[in-house]
Specification:
Blueprint: E1 2-9, E2 12-19, H1 21-38, H2 51-81, E3 91-92, E4 107-114, E5 128-134, H3 138-151, E6 154-157, E7 166-173, E8 186-192, H4 200-204, E9 214-217, H5 219-222, H6 227-234, H7 238-241, E10 248-259, H8 265-272, H9 280-311, H10 322-332, H11 338-364, H12 371-387, H13 396-407, H14 410-432, E11 434-440, H15 442-447
Parallel strand pairs: 5-11
Antiparallel strand pairs: 1-2, 2-4, 3-4, 6-10, 7-8, 7-10, 9-10
Helix pairs in contact: 1-2, 3-9, 10-11, 12-13, 12-14
């Protein structure tokens, strides 16, 4: 076997692999012998099928398979042993000679390689990149405080109903004369929320009603034939619900209203732990700090977007194997056309430059993500998930258990590893380049992506 590399230019090369019969014959014969042992051919006992017949039946397919496997192994071993940094995957060369497994004993395979260019750049304080810090407003704090209070609220009984209250009672189907219908629908524990009644007139019937009163209304009109709501209220199947157009009486037995939790020590303790916060002022400061912490990843992400724009100017003259990459994209992505690849290629090259630049930054500065950093990133993800439900004081051991379970799933682990490495690169860059610190409102921050 002979393997040669021909360099076309700095970013394109061709690998040629020549196989002679001696390179593959032993493997082919061994495979055919195994076929002969297992072949089930009418007229012959297993293991006694003539070798010539086996070769006639399977020889060409076995030869092709063994040659292809040997070529593939030789190609990737050569790339690995010679530490070739390639982009995409090797492609069958446009100059690939014809292959005929019926007549040839020697085979030549050629592969086009897209080589990664060498990047030369320096980073220092002359590289100025904006870093946006999002202002936490009083309205943001108020909204979050209200949300936390709501999540720690409870239902209380009230005498008169308002739109967002929950009304419970006895629901009875009526005849045309207003009397209970024989064999009609009766729901003893019916639950209705006026806020979900779509018809304004029917909704108004429940406004201000008190416990003990009876309301006569029409569910079909109230919910405008909405199957799910009707079925839930009447405790019947959806297809049955849409056939019921009678009036109903609703005897009010209980009215409950949701009240936000009070901003007291009990609420503070439930969110941040016992005696961690001792006043409403301290509580609001903790809430503000939590919001600021939640904005840091947003600021870091924007920093990396702007870093890409600024730093890629250093690579404006770097050549890439564009034509070979276009062929690779067309070969691997079925939804792409030559026109779409031509349109998308400039952006793809920019993304590829940024990816290679970050890889080089990682390599040159020995940047790594330790197991402890990976776990901490997973805990941040877990903590944010709990925070969405108002759980701000999750015990450390519980966070660790949840995070550890997340890291056991390969796809999740890789996503978290990418987040952790991105944070490592961002932190490195923030210490190397000049940061133009800019405080900005959330509204203006969002406009940066417009």
């Amino acid at each position: 076997m002979q393997v040669d590399k021909h360099v076309i230019d700095q970013v394109n090369a061709v690998i040629t692999i020549v196989l002679d019969k001696a390179d593959y014959q032993e493997k082919v014969e061994k495979t055919l012998k195994n076929y002969r042992k297992k072949a089930n051919v009418p007229g012959f006992r297993p293991g006694n099928v003539p070798a010539g017949l086996i070769n006639k039946m399977y020889g060409k397919a076995v030869l092709a398979e063994e040659v292809q496997q040997l070529v593939g192994e030789s190609l990737y071993n050569y790339i690995k042993d010679n530490q070739l940094n390639i982009l995409g995957e090797p492609l069958a060369s446009v100059d690939q000679p014809a292959i005929d497994f019926d007549t040839q004993e020697s085979f030549t395979f050629k592969f086009d390689l897209a080589l990664s260019p060498e990047l030369t750049f320096t980073l220092n304080k002359k590289d100025a990149i904006p870093y946006y810090t999002i202002d936490v407003t009083e309205d943001m704090v108020n909204e979050q405080v209200k949300s936390l209070a709501s999540r720690n609220g409870s239902y209380v009984k009230v005498d008169a109903a308002e739109e967002k209250d929950v009304v419970k009672g006895l629901l009875t189907e009526l005849q045309a004369d207003g009397q209970p219908a024989a064999d009609g629908v009766v729901v003893e524990d019916a639950v209705l929320m006026p806020a979900y009644v779509k018809d304004a007139g029917e909704k108004a019937k429940f406004m201000g009603v008190t416990v003990g009163q009876t309301v006569v209304f029409n569910p079909a009109k109230a919910y405008e034939k909405a199957e799910a709501e009707l079925a839930s209220l009447l405790h019947v199947a959806k297809d049955v619900a849409t056939t019921i157009e009678s009036d109903f009486s609703f005897e009010i037995k209980e009215i409950t209203r949701f009240q936000d939790g009070e901003l007291n020590q009990e609420l503070f303790d439930s969110i941040y732990g016992k005696d961690e916060v001792k006043s409403e002022a301290d509580f609001r400061e903790r809430v503000k700090a939590s919001i600021e912490a939640q904005f840091v990843p947003e600021s870091d992400y924007r920093f990396m977007v702007d870093a890409k724009t600024v730093l890629l100017k250093k690579l404006s003259d770097v050549a890439f194997p564009v034509d070979t990459l276009k062929r690779w994209v067309l070969a691997t992505k079925q939804d792409q056309t030559e026109a779409s690849v031509d349109t998308d290629m400039p952006a793809m090259i920019e993304d590829l430059k940024w990816h290679l630049m970050k890889e080089q930054i990682v390599k040159e500065n020995n940047l790594t993500v330790t197991d402890a950093e990976l776990l901490e990133t997973a805990k941040k993800v877990t903590r944010a998930q709990f925070a969405q439900y108002g759980m701000m004081n999750v015990p450390e051991d519980l966070l660790t258990n949840y995070a550890s379970d997340m890291l056991k799933k390969e796809e999740t682990r890789q996503n978290i590893l990418d987040q952790a490495m991105s944070a490592v690169v961002a932190n490195h860059l923030k210490g190397v380049v000049k940061l133009n610190q800019k405080a900005i409102s959330m509204e203006d921050f969002n406009k940066l992506y417009a």
